[in-house]
């Protein structure tokens, strides 16, 4: 009999992963795969150039590869991974949410947000989520399966292509930030999320050439995975979805807290901050009359003061039929003031996307 939490990193039984894709493979593995198809190993670099540097997986554009080899290489190493089901935009087109259907019919979401000084993309790492947080639309749906590395990467490739081609108002632009805060618990799909981070940050044409410092990986607090991530030597930011400073409430809001308590989660985060040199982002969804009391703000401030941390307060984007809703403005202001009194840096997240089912999992739920 497994101990509570031991199966937390496992994919659901019967989950069918997609076919092998170039983005699943390291540069060395790509050369081996190409050679296994009877092609010269250097074709792997050509394929990488097309996909990661030129953002195209259409063999018709591969004019440097013999026509006879294109279709086979495309079929074996760049198979279709997802199809767009639906797009919704708001903020005059600056925020765009996309619903994707994967090869097995599973639905996932990604969101592209353009600001005056940056462009941020929020991506999914799992179809659904097994963490069972009661206020989260994705948590309510349960876990279907992990995404492959390539399925994660392809969300970003599609977003970068849209930015390059001027599909987002404001003219062509470059992606500056990626947050693993879409559907799923990233560290419960550790191997594939780490592979995606490598593909995103490897220099072109081996990868997309993005900065590790522009990537944020979130977690509800899977302590062994935080420790493992610390050993990777990355410069990505760690975001801890805390949502309550006391174990009694967090056991309910974030059920994994029954395995790893608040202090243990934060202790692991502080080690990551020390090793990476990056400030930890503490995510806190403000829920009316649940976790927004002044005494909880004071407790949170005492836990975080003099630490390398920043609090990101999130006005809850309520899901249809849910009893959970956003805090009153006066309670939000008091919460901010209490944290600032402890010298803890705090910001209130811009509540984009409410009119397009902005909470992760809401758009997918409407298609089920």
Automatic annotation (TrEMBL):
Keywords: 4Fe-4S, Cytoplasm, Disulfide bond, Iron, Iron-sulfur, Metal-binding, Methyltransferase, rRNA processing, S-adenosyl-L-methionine, Transferase, tRNA processing. The active site is at 109 (proton acceptor), 360 (s-methylcysteine intermediate). It is an enzyme of class 2 (transferase). Transmembrane segments: none annotated. Its EC number is 2.1.1.192. SUPFAM superfamilies: Radical SAM enzymes (SSF102114). [4Fe-4S] cluster binds at residues 129, 133, 136. Its cofactor is [4Fe-4S] cluster. The keyword Cytoplasm applies. GO terms for biological process: rRNA base methylation; tRNA methylation. It catalyses: adenosine(2503) in 23S rRNA + 2 reduced [2Fe-2S]-[ferredoxin] + 2 S-adenosyl-L-methionine = 2-methyladenosine(2503) in 23S rRNA + 5'-deoxyadenosine + L-methionine + 2 oxidized [2Fe-2S]-[ferredoxin] + S-adenosyl-L-homocysteine; adenosine(37) in tRNA + 2 reduced [2Fe-2S]-[ferredoxin] + 2 S-adenosyl-L-methionine = 2-methyladenosine(37) in tRNA + 5'-deoxyadenosine + L-methionine + 2 oxidized [2Fe-2S]-[ferredoxin] + S-adenosyl-L-homocysteine. Binds 1 [4Fe-4S] cluster. The cluster is coordinated with 3 cysteines and an exchangeable S-adenosyl-L-methionine. GO terms for cellular component: cytoplasm. S-adenosyl-L-methionine binds at residues 184-185, 218, 241-243, 317. Belongs to the radical SAM superfamily. RlmN family. NCBIfam families: rRNA_mod_RlmN. This is Probable dual-specificity RNA methyltransferase RlmN.
């Amino acid at each position: 009999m497994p101990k509570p939490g031991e199966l937390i990193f496992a994919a659901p039984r019967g989950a069918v992963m997609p076919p092998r894709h170039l983005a699943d493979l390291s540069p060395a593995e790509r050369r081996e795969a190409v050679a296994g198809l009877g092609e010269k190993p250097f074709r792997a670099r050509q394929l990488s150039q097309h996909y990661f540097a030129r953002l195209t997986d259409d063999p018709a554009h591969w004019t440097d590869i013999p026509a006879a080899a294109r279709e086979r290489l495309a079929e074996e190493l760049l198979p279709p991974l997802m199809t767009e089901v639906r797009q919704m935009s708001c903020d005059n087109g600056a925020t765009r949410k996309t619903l994707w259907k994967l090869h097995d019919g599973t639905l996932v979401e990604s969101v592209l947000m353009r600001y005056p000084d940056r462009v941020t993309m929020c991506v999914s790492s799992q179809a659904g989520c097994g963490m069972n947080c009661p206020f989260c639309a994705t948590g309510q749906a349960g876990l279907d399966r992990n995404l492959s590395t390539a399925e994660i990467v392809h969300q970003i490739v599609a977003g970068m292509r849209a930015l390059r081609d001027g599909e987002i108002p404001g003219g062509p632009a470059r992606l500056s930030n990626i947050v693993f805060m879409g559907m799923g618990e990233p560290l419960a799909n550790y191997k594939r999320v780490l592979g995606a981070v490598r593909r995103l940050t490897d220099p072109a044409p081996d990868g997309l050439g993005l900065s590790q410092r522009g990537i944020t990986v979130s977690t509800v607090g899977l302590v062994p995975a935080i420790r493992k991530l610390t050993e990777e030597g990355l410069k990505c930011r760690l975001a801890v979805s805390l949502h309550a400073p006391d174990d009694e409430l967090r056991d309910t809001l974030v059920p994994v807290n029954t395995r790893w308590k608040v202090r243990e989660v934060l202790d692991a985060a502080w080690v990551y901050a020390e090793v990476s040199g990056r400030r930890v982002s503490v995510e806190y969804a403000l829920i009316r009359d649940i976790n927004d009391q002044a005494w909880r703000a004071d407790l949170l401030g005492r836990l975080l003061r003099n630490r390398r941390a920043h609090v990101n307060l999130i006005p809850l984007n309520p899901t249809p039929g849910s009893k959970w809703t956003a805090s009153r403005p006066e309670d939000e202001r008091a919460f901010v003031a209490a944290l600032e009194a402890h010298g803890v840096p705090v910001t209130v997240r811009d509540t984009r996307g409410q009119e397009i089912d902005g909470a992760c999992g809401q758009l997918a739920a409407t298609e089920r």
